[in-house]
Design a protein that fits this description.
The complex is a heterodimer of chains A (about 110) and B (about 180). Chain A is mainly α and about 110 residues long. Chain A has helices at about 10-15, 25-50, 55-80, 85-90, 95-114. Chain B is an all-alpha fold. Chain B has one domain (about 1-170). Classes of the chains: A mainly alpha (about 110), B mainly alpha (about 180). The interface of A and B includes residues 25, 96, 102, 110 and 111 of A.
């Protein structure tokens, strides 16, 4: 696959995700949000599974933690003020992180409590 | 139960890798694909640049730039269409092998409770999560639900890692809404 030379690896981008001085392009921000969101949803899923939370509180915890995190990230670190882009960031990777969260929750719940 | 979940996850990862491999063989390594991908990247970069400048220019310049932006957006749309057309060949093959895999899984897990859900799925999801399972306990989960879930995040993330994710339409839920402007 041909990739432009100035394209940074996703690991590098993630490492620098919390440096305020680093200037990201929109595409890089979207990638970062995508991965950070997935990491958080796995963690939340594991916590829910270990605590054997059942029912809607689990989903509410997921929604609050990921959307809250994304909102915190773009307002505190990226200081974005375009509404359209904020909305795009909130949607980024939503379905796949939701399913990843549900999967890790189900897996842990079945290992520990069934 | 847990082995079943891991098995389904493993199959879903393997099938995604396989289908990406086939796509690479048939599509990604061809010159025409590379060319149109580079084209899209270039147009996208131009568009981003214009949008960035948009916020700090006078109204007179803004009009000019808006027109330019529209032109680039139009070109981008056409390029995206070309790209998805070129993927069609591999999509056909992938679809057939997915159907094969799914019917194989259906045969093994027919009527088997793969896992217990920690929640009761809402209405229409119950049809999927309770497929081929007898009884009224809706926390019993069938293979179909786990497989669908796995393939959703596995596929998405593997394509993201390999850099072959299909270009997103601007507004996946409200497709075509912003064309009215």
């Amino acid at each position: 696959m041909s990739e432009s030379k100035d394209k940074k690896s996703q690991l590098f981008l993630l490492k620098n995700a919390f440096y305020k001085d680093y200037k990201f392009s929109n595409k890089e921000i979207l990638q970062n949000v995508h991965w950070l969101r997935h990491i958080i949803s796995i963690i939340v899923g594991i916590v829910m599974g270990v605590l054997s939370v059942t029912g809607y509180p689990g989903f509410i915890a997921y929604l609050v933690s990921t959307c809250g995190f994304v909102a915190f990230y773009y307002s505190k670190f990226l200081e974005i003020d375009e509404d359209e882009f904020k909305w795009e960031l909130l949607q980024e990777g939503f379905m796949s992180s939701l399913t990843l969260f549900a999967f890790s929750w189900i897996l842990l719940y079945n290992i520990l409590h069934v | 139960m847990v082995q079943d979940i891991i098995f389904i996850l493993f199959l879903s990862v393997a099938s995604t890798l396989l289908s990406e491999g086939v796509s690479w063989l048939l599509v990604y390594r061809t010159d025409s694909y590379k060319k149109s991908k580079a084209n899209i990247d270039r147009l996208q970069a131009q568009l981003d640049k214009i949008k960035e400048q948009d916020s700090n220019t006078s109204t007179l310049l803004k009009k000019k730039q808006d027109k330019k932006g529209e032109k680039i957006e139009e070109a981008l749309k056409i390029a995206n269409k070309d790209l998805s057309l070129s993927k069609f060949k591999s999509m056909f093959f992938v679809a057939i092998s997915m159907i094969g895999l799914f019917s194989y899984l259906n045969r093994i897990f027919d009527g088997v409770v793969v896992c217990k859900l920690p929640f009761v799925p809402i209405g229409f999801l119950q049809n999927i999560s309770h497929r081929t399972i007898a009884g009224d306990d809706y926390t019993d989960c069938s293979m179909t639900f786990i497989y669908a879930m796995c393939s959703m995040f596995v596929r998405n993330n593997i394509q993201m890692i390999l850099g072959t994710a299909p270009p997103k339409s601007k507004n996946p839920f409200l497709g075509g809404m912003d064309e009215k402007k």
